Amino acid sequence: MSKLITVTYKGKEEKKYPVGITLKEISKDFSKYYKYPVLISEVNNNIRELNEEVLKNIDVDFFDRTSNVGLSTYGRTLQFILVYALKRINARAKLRIENSIDKGFYCEVSGIELNKPLINALQKEMEKIVLEKWEIIKFNVRRQDAIEYFAKRKMADKVNVLKYISNSYVSLYRIDDVYDYFYGPLADNTSLIDEFKLSYIKDKGFVVSYPTEANPDITLDYVHHEMLFNKFCEYEKWNKMLGTQNASDINNYVTNGDFSELINLSETFYENQLSDIANKIYENKKNIKIVLIAGPSSSGKTTTAKKLSIYLKSRGLKTHSLSTDDYFVEREQTPKHKDGSYDFECVEAVDVTLFNRTLVDLLNGKEVNLPEFNFITGKKEYKGKTLKLGNDDVVIVEGLHAINEKLTPAIEQKNKYKIYISPLTQLNIDDHNRIHTSDIRKLRRMVRDNNFRGYSASDTLNAWKSIRQGEEKYVFPFQDEADVVINSSLLYEIGILKLYAEPLLFSVKEDEGCYTEAIRLINFLRNFLAIPSENVPKDSVLREFIGGSCYYEKN
Predict the structure, then answer these.
(1) 493, HSE (Cβ side, Cα atoms, 13 Å)
(2) Which pLDDT belongs to residue 135?
(3) The CATH fold of domain 69-209
(4) In CATH, what number does 4-64 get?
(5) Model-level pTM?
(6) What is the H or E stretch that residue 343 is in?
(7) Taking every pair of C-alpha atoms in the chain, what is the biggest distance, in angstroms?
């Protein structure tokens, strides 16, 4: 009789299985708990692919596309199907997956004419591959063998990224005769990826959309955000000019001793955006009196507001800061979540009537008394602080709802200038492994939370889902209302953040719920060489997170 092992599902349900059974086989016994096919597993708090064999007693959980872990696996697998489909259509065509955009990812193709018929053919080919139920095979090879394989096929992006990986062995994936490298796990069969949609963007590229956690049943139609898209394209063009499209390109700067130049170039790109905005505001100074800045968590809003103030002052304008935090409604009037806790993030938590009356009075040349919110008592207090605008005065408002029209309904459009800011990275691991903008923000926040708020990496990682839900509700829907987009991404910043983030991530214990995410981020950071922080300018937006900023006394 063969030896049996005990598998405990979610710490509750136990079943016996023979040694050597695959996680795929085990998942079948628990598929009744899932609406969609299981894509990936978690074994003893470590992410494992379904084709792995089980040799000892384990605790296990499974994920379908209704979870973040499952959906990430779904997206990566979809990318590999896309790669394979394009190879079947034209073996000479080269695909580059550029960035995330509107619940999907944006791609460009070279070596073949890109048009709508090609995108339609690509959609059909991908659907065919799904129906053919190709097994996705994972295997470990010597890193040098992988380098030689990709070199023979003139896939320089793969060669270069593997060159900087210290592991002796790397994992490759295969569909049919097509091999590829991914820095995250994949599903084990193409048949599991049955919902997606391709959208052609004229003269540019195309977007691959797929379900989300909020809408797992269907793929929503792609919504084109013109301003955001153009900002991505602008950054992409700049990256191409500098030759910094992939992680290895950044690493080359480090190994060549040129990281100071990279820092200066990155900072200049960011500064140029602020200079252009300051010029626009100055040119229309008779009308623009209120500048509103919003963006998702860890975008660099605070530093940007301070730096923009300096640029405006250098043009002869006088700036004043106004915080929506001082305009919270009284605590007893604050809206609540279903569980009874206060909802400080919704726009109704702000005394919009008072805030607008303040702005209108300022625009009419009146002197106003400014409140200061006491977070202990939950009440606004007036301590004699007043403000009156002169002819060349500008008010800068930075906050979660700043560009939401519900915050400033009483203010005419001509009197306000709305800025949306986010680190919109165009940097990739390689041509088929994009870097998520949210990962940059997550690392920034984790470092800042530890530096200035005493939070652990676990605290930040555990809170991230709630943070993202707030952004989806209160920030992203209003990005198209902005007059301009600022990209606060810095090409060099991952190498800097690596020094601060890695020790924090390694402190996450294996029995913590966020352990798998910590390991994913550790593996992500391994693609980058560390860069010393001494050369980061004191006024850099990155200093808002790592410390040492000239704008903050506590730093």
Answers:
(1) 31
(2) 97
(3) Threonyl-tRNA Synthetase; Chain A, domain 2 (3.30.980)
(4) 3.10.20.30
(5) 0.91
(6) none
(7) 90
